[in-house]
Structures are given as C-alpha cells and as structure tokens.
Specification:
single chain, 22% strand
Length: 304
C-alpha cells in the first residue's frame, strides 16, 4: 500500500503540465506537475495565496469568474488565455519562458469540498507554439502577399463587423477607396517587378499616415481601400487628402531607378442609418470614378 502511494505521488509530481487546485474564493490550494522550465515557471510559492494576492485585479477577476462558472455549470470547461511571468508576483524571479505563454486551461469541478469550500482542478497546458502557428495561418489568409496590406477578404469581414457595431452603437465609420493614376504606364515602361515595388512602397507610406485602428486593404490590382472606424465623413476626407499629398510627393527613384512621382484618385463615403455594406462601397467607388473623371489626383466624398 505504501509503495503504491509513493508511486502515485511520484506520478503526480511528474505530470508534464501544471495542475492547480483552486477554491471558489480564488485560493491556490495545491499545485503539482509542470516542472520543465522550458515551458513553465515554478509556481509552488503561490500555494495558500489568493488570485488577488498575486495577479492584477482584472486578471484575478477573470480567473475567479471561470472558477465560479465551472462550479455552477458542474462540467468540464476549456478556456484559452495568455499569461506572462510579469503578470504573477514572484514568477519573474523564477526560471522559465521570457515571452508570454498561451495556455489552454481545462477546468473540472471537484465533487467534495476542500477546506470547506467548493473547488476545481485547473490543468494549464502550454499551447504557445500552436497559437503562434494559428496566428501565422490567419495572417496568411488575411494579408496580401505582395504588399503586406490586408486583402479583400479581410476587408469584407471587417466591414461586416463594423456595420453591426454601427447599427447598434452608431459609431461613425467611413470607407476610402483609391487607386494609382496611370499605373499601367509604370508597368509598361519599367516592368511588372518594378510596378510591384511601387505598390509595396506606397503601402508603407500609407501605413505611416494611418492609425492603428485603420484597416488598409488591397482591393484589387492597383486599387486599395481604407476602413476608418470612429471617423466621420469630414475626418475621412481630410485623411484621404493627407494620403493623396503624401503619395504624390514621394519620389520612386529607389524603386524605378529614376525620379518618378505617382498621384492617386480617391472616393470617400461614410455609413448612414439606411445603408447596407454594398451601398457604402458603391458611394466610395462612385467617388473614385468621379475623381478620375475630374482629372485625377483628387478626393471626392459622397454622402449620398
């Protein structure tokens, strides 16, 4: 019997992933396994502390909510989350991964109380490699391979999301569609490889002018679109003018081997209550064609 118990304890200690016993109040009751410093930090010092003792309040509240929801539903639940040594008091002093770790948490309620409290078993598995691979695959599916801008598929997904937000919260949202004037002449004169370099350089110029929340997409060929959340028509038109001037003032000598400038024409529209996604795109598109018909190198905004 003693030998079996010793074997059991040795097996538990050798578990590759850390297994926590956490009480309903958020106390670390026990921790076993997860001793490989390539994947985990040593969290043994957490036992008998509470989540709020060692984690920022927002994180501690989230973990506590997962514990209580698992107990209430009385079933196995799985969650994914990121956590770094800097998030947990004391872990920064232990050996382990330097970057944030992505975890899959498998949470199972215990049948019997622990020290008078309901509790859960929380198995924390390092899934950082899998998460990063999924992120890379997602980026490949959403990015234009040549320019690094997002692709048309990503634009349509983002439009669906922002359209739903607009219908609910009425946050102003605008769309800009633009293309490079007489770009065919660049390809005909310098070749398609040089033309690709021009598109890539132009995207880099735009990204420097745009906010983090703005979404720059290659709409097709030399045509691009910018989705502008929290931006009304006047603000979007001003931004489009800045982009037009920035692109028009750039010298593509590095890309083409000689001094060369390219202008853009743009159309801008903003979401209205009566809108569908198609009507928003059509107004911006109509503005673009009107800009071309007006002599190019200009911005036309359309409110209706």
């Amino acid at each position: 019997m003693k030998q079996n118990l010793e074997l059991l304890m040795e097996m538990l200690a050798a578990l590759p992933d850390p297994v926590f016993i956490l009480s309903e109040s958020g106390r670390y009751v026990a921790l076993i396994g997860g001793h490989d410093a390539r994947y985990y930090h040593d969290g043994s010092h957490l036992v008998n502390f509470s989540l709020h003792d060692v984690l920022p309040k927002e994180l501690a509240d989230w973990f506590l909510e997962q514990i209580r929801q698992t107990i209430e539903e009385n079933r196995l639940r799985t969650v994914e989350y990121a956590l770094g040594a800097h998030d947990v008091k004391g872990l920064e002093l232990t050996e382990g991964p330097e970057q944030d770790i992505w975890f899959e948490g498998r949470i199972q309620p215990l049948s019997n109380p622990v020290d008078g409290e309901r509790a859960v078993v929380w198995v924390a598995r390092n899934i950082t490699e899998r998460h990063n691979m999924q992120l890379q695959l997602k980026n490949l599916a959403e990015l234009d391979e040549l320019t690094g801008a997002y692709n048309r598929r990503k634009l349509m997904e983002a439009l669906d999301e922002k359209f739903a937000e607009f219908k609910r919260y009425h946050h102003p949202t605008s769309l800009m569609i633009f293309d490079l004037d007489h770009f065919k002449q660049v390809n005909d004169r310098f070749g398609h490889i040089a033309g690709d370099k021009v598109l890539t350089a132009m995207v880099k110029l735009c990204k420097k002018q745009l906010r983090q929340q703005d979404l720059l997409c290659r709409y097709g060929g030399e045509e691009f679109a910018v989705l502008l959340p929290n931006t009304d028509l006047e603000e979007a038109t001003q931004l489009a003018e800045r982009l037009r001037k920035t692109i028009g003032q750039y010298d593509y000598h590095k890309e083409l081997g000689q001094a060369y400038s390219i202008t853009v024409s743009a159309g801008v529209s903003a979401l209205c209550i009566k809108d569908k996604i198609e009507s928003l795109i059509k107004r911006a598109d109509d503005g673009l064609y009107q800009a071309k018909a007006s002599g190019r190198n200009c911005v036309i905004s359309r409110s209706s």
